[in-house]
Amino acid sequence: MKLYRVIAFTTRHLYLYKRSLPRLMEIFYWPFLDLVLWGFVTIYLVQFKGQLPNFVAFFLGALILWDILFRSQQGISVSFLEDMWARNVLNIFVTPISPMEYIVALMLVSIVKLAAASVVMVLLAWLFYSFNIFLIGISLIPLIANLVIMGWTVGIVTTALILRFGQEAEVLAWAVAFLFQPVSAVFYPVSVLPHFLQIIAGVIPSSYVFEGMRRVITSGDFPVSDLLWAAGLNGIYLLLALIFFHQNFDIVKKKGLLVKAG
Amino acid sequence: MTSPVVEVKNLTKVFNNLRAVDNISFEIYPGEILGILGPNGAGKTTTLQMLLGLTTPTSGEIKVFGLDLRHNRERILQAVNFSSSYVSLPYSLTVRENLTVFAKLYGIKNHRERILKLLRTFEIDDICDRVVRGLSSGQIARVSLAKALLNEPKVLFLDEPMANLDPNIADKTRRLLKGIKKEKGLSILYTSHNMKEMEEMSDRIIFLDKGRIFAAGRPEDILARFRGESLEEVFLKIARGDNPLEAK
Question: Could you write out the three-class secondary structure of A82-99?
Answer without folding.
Answer: HHHHCCCHHHHHCCCCCH
